[in-house]
Amino acid sequence: MSIAKKRGLGKGLSALLNDDRPAGAAGSDDRAIVGDPSRRLLPVSFLERNPDQPRTRFDTVAIEELTASVKEKGVLQPILVREIGEDRYQIVAGERRWRAAQKAGIHDVPVVVRDLSDTEVLELGLIENIQREDLTPIEEAKAFKRLMQEFGHTQEVLSDIVGKSRSHVANLLRLLTLPVTVQILVDDGKLTMGHARALIGVKNAEIIAQEIIAKGLSVRQTEALAAEDKGNKPRTIAAARARRSANKDADTIALEKDLSAAIGMKVSIDHQGEGGDIVIKYASLEELDDLCGKLGVCGL
């Protein structure tokens, strides 16, 4: 049975921390706090990060803000650890607090020591990070995938454990079908999850991704590009218009206006390589007949 089922991690870390009081309120060494052998103050140098930590990026600004808070108030929530050797403790949850404590010059931090297996540590670390909601969509998707592959969780079980909808879990997992280069752009914050979802299953996803960034395209415009790449018509008229407008420069737009003014009808120009299309819209048969006259051809 998984740790999630045994210890109720769907409700957060409180089931393991049993923490209903301020941490770090007593003691200054590594002895048990207030008679509880699991609660201690340990030197930050005794703690080590978990190499299987699912979070690969730490926001610099967020760490600086947490550091300022730690300097003023200390570490208010204990760090969950397990003992791995003499004066060696591996962080299970709370690496950001540990990093901030080091930057703040704090020598001792409050911890809760638990006897956890490698499997339990991995599962707990994945779930804790997902629940914090500050992973990138790709990091979260990879965490979901590991929970399914290594612990046999279904999408439905995962949605219950982490408090997310099943559709959210499914949509994130689909992001992992994107090319790695596109996943990196999502990780870097250059593409939103909405952009990324529109590119799923698109043959030229990498090329379109670069176009999105270069032109600052919206999700709707991205959907239109993706639909065209798949050989389908854009999903909506609005999306088609957005696609055309996104590719038009100022000279083309000005020419459209001049032609429209000259013939009294709306003109649209769509460049396609060296050539392209000119579309003239008429509102009635009388307007069409008038256009034929201006062009010197027989009318209706």
UniProtKB/TrEMBL annotation:
One BP annotation, GO: chromosome segregation
Q: Hey, which family's this protein in? A: Belongs to the ParB family.
Q: Which domain of life is it from?
A: Bacteria
Q: Which NCBIfam families match?
A: parB_part (TIGR00180)
- This one is known as Chromosome partitioning protein ParB
Q: Which UniProt keywords apply?
A: Chromosome partition, DNA-binding
What are the record's GO terms for cellular component? chromosome
User: What does the UniProt record say this protein does?
Assistant: Involved in chromosome partition. Localize to both poles of the predivisional cell following completion of DNA replication. Binds to the DNA origin of replication.
Q: Write down the InterPro entries for this protein, in alphabetical order.
A: Chromosome_partition/occlusion (IPR050336), HTH_ParB/Spo0J (IPR041468), ParB/RepB/Spo0J (IPR004437), ParB/Sulfiredoxin_sf (IPR036086), ParB_dimer_C (IPR057240), ParB_N (IPR003115)
A Pfam cross-reference name: ParB_C
What residue stretches are annotated with the ParB-like N-terminal domain?
Answer: 40-130
Provenance organism:
Kordiimonas sediminis
Q: Per its UniProt record, what SMART domains does this chain match?
A: ParB (SM00470)
